[in-house]
Amino acid sequence: MADKIEGAVFDLGGVVVDWNPRYVYRDIFTGDEAKVEYFLSTVCPMSWNGQQDAGQTIAEGTEERVALFPEWEREIRAYYARWIDMIRDPIPGTTGVIAALKAKGLPVWALSNWSAETFPLVRHSVPAFDLFNKIFISGEYKMIKPDHRFFRAALDEIRMPADKLVFVDDNLANVAAAVELGFIALAFTDAARLKADLGTLGLAV
Predict the structure, then answer these.
(1) Between the CA atoms of 164, 116, 51 and 20, what dihedral angle is there, to the nearest 10 degrees?
(2) What is the pLDDT of residues 29-73, one digit of tens each?
(3) How confident is the model at residue 204, as a pLDDT?
(4) What is the DSSP letter of 170?
(5) pLDDT of the residue at 203
(6) Sign of CA dihedral 161, 163, 168, 171
(7) What's the start-to-end Cα distance of the chain, in Å?
(8) pLDDT tens for residues 86-96?
(9) β-strand 7-10 against 134-137: which pairing, if any?
(10) What is the DSSP string of 39-98?
(11) What's the CA gap between 149 and 186, in Å, rounded?
(12) What pLDDT score was predicted for residue 2?
């Protein structure tokens, strides 16, 4: 299998770097987990965050939610005002895996659902990001995973067939979409499991 693999494509959030809005809202709601979960499931859910990842501006998205939930205005505006506090340390071990693949001569890319407005805030602060041949940010392409079009847009620039690429993502819907497109897709849980899965493919790292 290893002789068939010519490159790898990684998700970023949850695979390379830790991002979680709960870090901010646990502070805002002073540890009230029920309120945190209500807010992040109803007021500012991941589907809403995905609209910004797909190209809607932060200003548009914020005003939309404030109009729907005026009683939560302060907390809604904190979402992007304090967005940088949602970013924590790199996921342990993943950077080493990416570096090891590069050392084997394999090119690596990133394909991430991420707002084009927030990504520049961390682009040069995460060492792993400098290892990628290119980072495909959904907000720049106005489409998000698991939309096949986003994968195909990246493939057009990578200029390799999907079946020669390992795809790594922690979101199972994205992994399923990658499988449908022919990628050798791996569901990420942690770096140790990723190393084991790559070893099964003949890529010891």
Answers:
(1) 80
(2) 999 999 999 999 999 999 999 999 999 999 999 999 999 999 999
(3) 87
(4) S
(5) 92
(6) positive
(7) 15
(8) 999 999 999 99
(9) unpaired
(10) IIIIIS-HHHHHHHHTT--HHHHHHHHHHH-GGGHHHHHHHHHTGGGGEEEEPTTHHHHH
(11) 20
(12) 54
Question: Measured in whole angstroms, how far is the alpha carbon of residue 96 from the centre of its chain?
Answer: 18
Residue 128: burial class (beta carbons within 10 Å; 0-12, 13-18, 19+): buried
Q: Kindly give, in sequence order, each residue whose CB lies less than 8 Å from that of residue 196, ignoring residues fewer than 6 positions away.
A: none
Residue spans of the chain under pLDDT 50: none
The residue written with tokens 């990001």 in the block is 129
Asked if residues 49 and 76 have their Cβ atoms less than 8 Å apart, the reply is no
Tell me the CB-side half-sphere exposure of residue 88, using CA atoms within 13 A.
11
Counting Cβ atoms within 10 Å, is residue 70 exposed (0-12), middle (13-18) or buried (19+)? exposed
Q: Environment class of residue 205 by beta-carbon count within 10 Å: exposed (0-12), middle (13-18) or buried (19+)? A: middle
Q: State which amino acid sits at residue 45.
A: P
pLDDT attached to residue 1: 57
Q: Decide the pairing of beta strands 17-19 and 87-90.
A: antiparallel
Model pLDDT, residue 164:
96
Cβ neighbour number for residue 67 with a 10 Å cutoff: 10
Angle (nearest 5°) at CA 134 between 103 and 83: 110
Q: What is the C-alpha separation between 16 and 2, in angstroms, rounded?
A: 23
Q: Angle between the 191-200 and 94-103 helix axes, to the nearest 10 degrees?
A: 30
Q: Which two tokens stand for residue 88?
A: 């924590």
